[in-house]
Amino acid sequence: MSNAYLLDTNAAIAHINGVPSIKPILEAADELFTSVVVLGELYFGAEKSGRVQQNKEQVEKFANEITVLNCNQETARIFGAVSHQLKLKGHLNQANDIWIAATALQYNLILLTRDADFNHVDGLTIASW
């Protein structure tokens, strides 16, 4: 596995807000990616904020600086397998989190997150800051 990361929503927010503790990981990465699902969550957060236009502009700037991966048939296949695996373990993760995990698995990326729910996904490599 290369040193390539898929940023979860909380990592994307930390990056957008310039959180110092995440910078060393981002700077050392070979490549940075995010999921279109993460962008949806970021746009939702911007829409419900008190500074809608400013936050949407920050999301758009972020989206232009990073490679955004879309979901496709292979992502859907992995989503189904992960959903089933989590159900068998008794974990009911949010659907968006499963799509994000499926994307990281599909492209063999390290998921950069602070969300402990991802710890239950078999085969997923996770990093935090």
Using only C-alpha atoms, the radius of gyration works out to 14 Å
- The CATH homologous superfamily is termed 5'-nuclease
Overall number of domains:
1
Distance between the termini: 19 Å
Report the β-strand fraction as a percent range: 5-15%
Continuous helix count: 6
Order of helices and strands: EHHEHHEHHEE
Task: Provide the descriptors you would attach to this structure in a database record.
13% strand, 5 strands, alpha/beta, five-stranded parallel beta sheet, 53% helix, 129 residues, single chain, Rossmann fold
General description of the model:
With 129 residues, the chain is α/β, with parallel strands linked by helices. Helix content is 53%, strand content 13%. The chain has 6 helices and 5 strands, in the order βααβααβααββ. The longest helix is centred in the middle third of the chain and has 17 residues, at 73-89. It is globular.
